[in-house]
């Protein structure tokens, strides 16, 4: 047919106007840090799995999904920004890289799993700085039960057991009501069932946070671990919550969760169930627990990084020397747009920089925007901060990278450098 194709994980896919996956991203797909024993991401995964010992543990699911799996099966609105090519990586219009582990909820429930954890690499087009990376690892947890009086009374007994455990523990929880007019039970749910399930979710997660953070924070009776719950909104749960932990003097957002949307369970062909789900980012928690200052470090193969960690142990990262940074600015007129053309997005620029320089870029910032008073043309200036985590970069080496960034900018976007 002559349609250009792209090879991803050993399979050829036709490309089209949606295709925006880059060689840098394709190179990350086989790495799966969550399955590399001794790596902080893998250790954190196994610690959480041991807390949910009776759950199924899934961790080898392909990152290639359909937009239906990633968005529609979870009731994302048609105009949700996550669907756009500026936010997500598309192989073509029918196939993409998952942006969250929830993309697998329907298929896992449909397979008959009723309580499970799923850990996976997820992909989002993003800015470049110390806490954002286009690949990260999430863990999804879910539990569903029959929506019957006897199953709900089992949940209520479970709640009593967990409450007693937490009352004896060094933890202080700032809760919010399980249901409010702004964070309601779903119309098809019995209110008492919904409250029991929401409480079960909160208790499971409070005890997980106590295990993860209580030990590291050295929680005591006098200085207990502090956790707070906040009402939230997600397209695929109601009621929904976010959870924060007070750790080393700051409130840190840890995860989002809620009661699973009935339409998700209906699509999974388990309509008579009710349950909860949560999703957490493993990098965010690992950066906190291990004191890892830069998200790029997780991808380092430097033995000075990897040799610091042992499977099953959380230890404090000891920084090796911080190498000098090298700033380079690039300033250009944004291309004139024909009617209906997509505007060049900041994530397009960041992807181009990543493809040239990979993890040698610490951050990218906009330092100036200007509109010419006569021509109305827009210009923008980005500052690229090159800094290796492993060695000193020479100015000559950085100049070569910067020249390649400029050359690709001109070729790909037809920009005029100022």
From TrEMBL:
It comes from the Eukaryota. Residues 44-319 form the Aminoacyl-transfer RNA synthetases class-II family profile domain. Coiled coil: none annotated. It catalyses: tRNA(Phe) + L-phenylalanine + ATP = L-phenylalanyl-tRNA(Phe) + AMP + diphosphate + H(+). It is found in: Mitochondrion matrix. One of its GO terms (biological process) is phenylalanyl-tRNA aminoacylation. GO terms for molecular function: ATP binding; phenylalanine-tRNA ligase activity; tRNA binding. Its main location: mitochondrion. Keywords: Aminoacyl-tRNA synthetase, ATP-binding, Ligase, Mitochondrion, Nucleotide-binding, Protein biosynthesis, Transit peptide. Its EC number is 6.1.1.20. SMART domains: FDX-ACB (SM00896). Residues 321-418 form the FDX-ACB domain. Belongs to the class-II aminoacyl-tRNA synthetase family. Is responsible for the charging of tRNA(Phe) with phenylalanine in mitochondrial translation. PANTHER family: PHENYLALANINE--TRNA LIGASE, MITOCHONDRIAL, PHENYLALANYL-TRNA SYNTHETASE. This is Phenylalanine--tRNA ligase, mitochondrial.
